[in-house]
Amino acid sequence: MFCMIGEDRKGNQLVPWTPKRFSPNGVMIRSVVSIGIPGALITESNATMNTDKKELAVAALRNGTVIDHIPHQVLFKVADLLGIQSLDTHVTIGNNLDSRRMGKKGIIKVADVFFPEDTLNRIAIIAPGAKINIIRDFEVVEKHPVTLADEIVGIIRCGNPKCITNNEPMRTRFTVTDREDVTLRCHYCGKSVKSTDAQIL
Question: Which element (helix H / strand E) includes 92?
């Protein structure tokens, strides 16, 4: 069984995985690239028993959700927004994948989980160009971009230490003031923040 991630996190540090951790037969994943099969990634690998032989392993998703075109810098923030760490289903994460439009991108595949729309749309705060693919029986049955809501509640921390939301037990509330540059303004103190600088709660 191939694992699609070439790196792991230890704290905030990315560390390479060993061949043993990838596969019991000692296959080393060399790279991960996107292919045209819905819900699928393909990896190019070398078997340690024959270094000249290249194998192709396709991990297709029968049912579930694919979040594609995630800026690679915010991939793990998106995973946190979706609560990936608390899921008990198979999750595939690929980062720094080649993209003609973005240069490098990230992708998350979650088997047998269909997130509510309001959960998926949280992604738009930090990855407004992300695309959602719903997979059923290996086919894409729905494909759409994430949608940035007019108001963001309980997701972002206000950067103003004097804001009431940092001093009282109440939910934060932000209004979207610029959709192109994704800029948000705190409902209570008026402090503005760009999505790239936003602190996720």
Answer: strand 91-99
Residues 43, 32 contacting (CB under 8 angstroms): yes
Phi, psi of 50 (to 5 degrees): -150, 95
Q: Which residues are CB-neighbours of 88 under 8 A, at least 6 positions away?
A: none
- Which residues are 199's β-sheet partners? 157
Reduce the secondary structure of 126-183 to three states and give it as a string: CCCCCEEEEEECCEEEEEEECCCCCEEECCEECCCCCCHHHCCCCCCEEEEEECCCCE
- Round to whole Å and give the CA distance between 176 and 119: 17
pLDDT, residue 59, reads 59
Q: Which two tokens stand for residue 117?
A: 């729309």
* Integer Cα distance of 4 and 116 in angstroms: 25
What predicted TM-score, i.e. pTM, was given to this entire model? 0.65
How high is the pLDDT of residue 96? 87
**Pairing mode, if any, of strands 156-157 and 50-60?**
unpaired
Encoding tokens for residue 139?
Answer: 């086919």
Residue 38, SS3?
Answer: coil
pLDDT, residue 54, reads 31
Q: What is the mean pLDDT of each run of 10 residues along the chain (201 residues)?
A: 39 38 36 41 38 40 92 90 89 88 90 90 89 93 91 92 95 93 94 87 78
